[in-house]
Specification:
By secondary structure, the chain is mainly α. It contains 16 helices and no strands. α5 runs antiparallel to α9, α8 runs parallel beside α13 and α9 packs across α16. It is globular, with a radius of gyration of 25 Å. The N and C termini lie far apart (98 Å). The N terminus is likely disordered.
Length: 356
């Protein structure tokens, strides 16, 4: 009987000791386990994604050719190219977005950006040089900035400038146009001007009911930052990835539906050629790191038309519109993309007339 009375005491002592186990040591252990698990998932998932993308891009056209027609083969080639091209940068964007939401305090943004939205817009637009990614990466990052309290006008200016003026894009443009170095400066000025003007237009005319603002993340007092990072990464990547696939499918459909002979009719007119390449930039969905090489190959078009292709593409294309609709709402995506296309076209024409 004494043994039975003594045993509960020992168990109670062990429970008390466990309850008073040092909290910092438990937090470090939990953080290390979550970090290791996240890195493992990213490495394994990234390798699996690359393997699947490679196999699909190689075997997809052959399978489509066997099962259907050459048109289906061409559609599948464009679809897989756009998807595989955009997924790595989408992953980069969701990583940055999750890191901002989990580890960056809100006071950081209040210190870096001016409190006046009109002044915060050019600062946020110029800050686009720090994100070496494409438009797939900019949407989740802009959403994360809004969740952290950044004014929508500044976040939208960053969304437009980041994929267009970052160092990777500028270097790629200089390599694609070695005989025309002014093309790099023209792209930088036209893209930055478009981003800043769109931010200011939102400050002046934007309405809250037009945009579905991302809700601030709710953190439990006992929650781990690594756990919040992992949850945010999974949500943003899966959510945005679906709309990337929809945009890629729309781009592939346009590529096989419009005959090339119709496109050739526009090359004779300088104004129609600018409009044509501005429209093609929307539907072709070429990544901003690669669109300069596509523009350089369009030798039948004027330099201003090719500039419009490179300025419009990173800011308005089908997959970007789909991503914006999924993140900020359909009504916002329609209004914002339409006005951005016009502003980008006008900026390209003005800068092209001045420098090219």
């Amino acid at each position: 009987m004494a043994y039975n009375q003594h045993t509960p005491g020992q168990a109670g002592t062990r429970r008390v000791e466990n309850q008073h186990y040092p909290a910092p040591r438990r937090g470090l252990a939990d953080g290390a386990r979550l970090a290791a698990r996240t890195v493992f998932y990213l490495v394994v998932g990234g390798l699996a994604l690359l393997a699947i993308g490679t196999v699909v891009s190689v075997l997809g056209p052959m399978v489509a050719l066997d099962l259907a027609t050459p048109a289906m083969s061409a559609w599948w080639t464009v679809f897989t190219a756009v998807t595989v091209q955009g997924v790595p940068f989408l992953l980069l964007g969701t990583l940055v977005s999750a890191a901002i939401g989990a580890f960056v305090p809100e006071r950081v943004f209040s210190r870096l950006l001016p409190s006046n939205p009109a002044l915060a817009v050019p600062v946020a637009g110029a800050a686009g040089v720090v994100l070496p990614g494409c438009e797939c990466a900019s949407v989740p990052v802009a959403g994360s900035l809004m969740r952290r309290g950044v004014t929508p006008a500044a976040a939208l200016a960053f969304l437009l400038s980041a994929p267009a003026i970052n160092p990777v894009v500028m270097v790629a443009t200089s390599i694609a146009f070695p005989a025309n170095p002014m093309m790099v400066l023209a792209r930088l000025l036209a893209s930055l001007a478009t981003a800043v003007v769109m931010g200011w237009l939102w400050v002046r005319f934007g309405r809250e009911e037009w945009i579905r603002l991302p809700k601030p993340a709710r953190r439990k007092p006992t929650g781990s930052r690594w756990d919040g990072f992992r949850t945010g990464l999974q949500h943003d990547f899966l959510h945005a990835g679906g709309f990337l696939v929809l945009g890629a499918a729309a781009a592939a459909t346009f590529n096989i539906a419009v005959p090339r002979s119709i496109l050739d009719l526009f090359t004779g007119s300088p104004w129609l050629s600018v409009l044509l390449l501005a429209v093609l930039a929307v539907v072709l969905c070429v990544c901003s790191e690669a669109d300069a090489f596509v523009a350089a190959s369009l030798t039948g078009f004027s330099p201003t038309a090719r500039l419009a292709f490179m300025v419009v593409g990173p800011m308005v294309d089908l997959k970007l519109i789909a991503l914006q609709a999924g993140t900020f709402g359909k009504s916002f995506a329609v209004r914002f993309s339409s006005v951005t296309w016009v502003v980008a076209l006008v900026s390209s024409v003005l800068v092209g007339w001045w420098l090219l």
